[in-house]
Design a protein that fits this description.
Layout (H helix, E strand, L loop, with lengths): L1 H12 L5 E5 L3 H18 L6 E5 L5 H9 L7 E6 L13 H8 L5 E7 L7 H9 L1 E4 L6 H14 L6 H11 L3 H15 L7 H7 L4 H13 L3 H12 L4 H23 L7 H5 L3 H11 L4 H20 L4 H13 L1
Parallel strand pairs: 1-4, 1-5, 2-3, 3-4
Protein name: DNA polymerase III subunit delta
Pfam family, one: DNA_pol3_delta_C
Keywords: DNA replication, DNA-directed DNA polymerase, Nucleotidyltransferase, Transferase
Length: 332
């Protein structure tokens, strides 16, 4: 995404900020950006002796600042601070050494902080913002963003893929940039000299996610096709324990009920992600599916789920058979 392009631009110009803060949900993007930054330092020091990685949980701020201020035989150094917890409530680490360092950072060192979450109101965050550059690495949110990202990844590998195939590939393999990237690498090997990657290719190589299988199962329920629903159920059961499958089904039914409730209140799909705590991409899929499943049907389905949950935990019956009976009732 654009954050990686920013890092590439900085390294291409040789103008690395003395301080970086990288944070966000997408660890794959952060790792990709780190590979770019690391390569810049390896150009002048192939041994990597000028690169140090430390954990904020094990090394004090004072010691980290000492590392950042120390000189190297080579002109530039990179000090990476992982597992940063300085923004969490109740953080007891003495951050004064950082505040002092950030007022006048060592220009020959890039001090890179890696965090999952930040608090923009904290003094430490503001000091970092003044001293260097802050980048948030987030996964694509909307369907169009996922397609655009995947287009670049496919193009980078010298392949092509239709937009329809890309959308199906994302649904099939899940919304995880790291997983999708790995699966694309496998598809490049699988397709060999053939330039186009097809739906048949990724279905042959990539394992369908359980979540995608559950969605497919509920699609069959919406069409009242007991045969297709049971077939989908057994596909899911080959991947996960029956209790996990039931938990996923209960979650999906509750989300579908949430979509129907929003629609009844005159709300639209754009409000579903924040209201239901899901991604925009998942919201789009669930909203469309909920159009074919009435609130009454979903309520009965949820009650059946809860009865099956009790039976799984107390009756000692065959879990697969109990789930199969439940799905057939769904379709009635």
């Amino acid at each position: 995404m654009k954050e990686i392009e920013i890092v590439k631009g900085s390294t291409a110009k040789g103008k690395i900020p003395p301080v970086y803060l990288w944070y966000g949900e997408d660890r794959f993007f952060i790792q990709e950006a780190y590979s770019v930054l690391k390569s810049f330092y390896l150009q002048t020091d192939p041994s990597g002796s000028g690169i140090e990685r430390v954990s904020a949980k094990n090394v004090s701020p004072a010691d980290i600042c000492e590392l950042a201020n120390s000189m190297s035989f080579f002109a530039n150094r990179l000090v990476v601070v992982e597992e940063v917890t300085y923004f969490q409530d109740g953080q007891t680490a003495d951050l004064d050494p950082f505040l002092e360092y950030l007022a006048n950072p060592n220009p020959s060192t890039c001090l890179l902080f890696l965090a999952e979450n930040v608090h923009k109101g904290r003094k430490f965050y503001k000091a970092l913002d003044r001293a260097g550059e802050i980048l948030e690495f987030r996964s694509p949110k909307r369907p169009q963003e996922w397609i655009e990202w995947l287009q670049e990844e496919v193009k980078h590998r010298g392949k092509t893929m239709s937009r329809q195939a890309m959308a199906q590939f994302i649904e099939w393999a899940g919304h995880n940039t790291g997983v999708l990237s790995q699966e694309l690498n496998k598809l490049v090997i699988y397709t060999g000299d053939r330039k186009t990657i097809t739906e048949e290719d990724f279905k042959a190589v990539t394992t369908q996610t359980v979540e995608a299988s559950v969605f497919q199962l509920l699609d069959a329920v919406a069409k009242r096709s007991a045969k297709d629903a049971v077939t989908s159920l057994h596909e899911v059961l080959r991947k996960e324990h029956p209790l996990k499958v039931l938990t996923l089904l209960i979650r999906q039914v509750r989300l579908l009920l949430g979509c129907n409730a929003l629609r009844e209140r005159g709300r639209n799909v754009s409000e579903a992600p924040s209201a239901l705590g899901i991604s925009p991409f998942e919201a789009q899929k669930l909203w469309q599916q909920s159009l074919h499943l009435s609130t009454e049907k979903l309520t009965r389905g949820l009650q059946e789920c809860l009865r099956t949950d009790l039976a799984l935990k107390t009756s000692g019956g065959d879990p697969d058979l109990l789930l199969e009976i439940m799905i057939v009732k769904f379709c009635e």
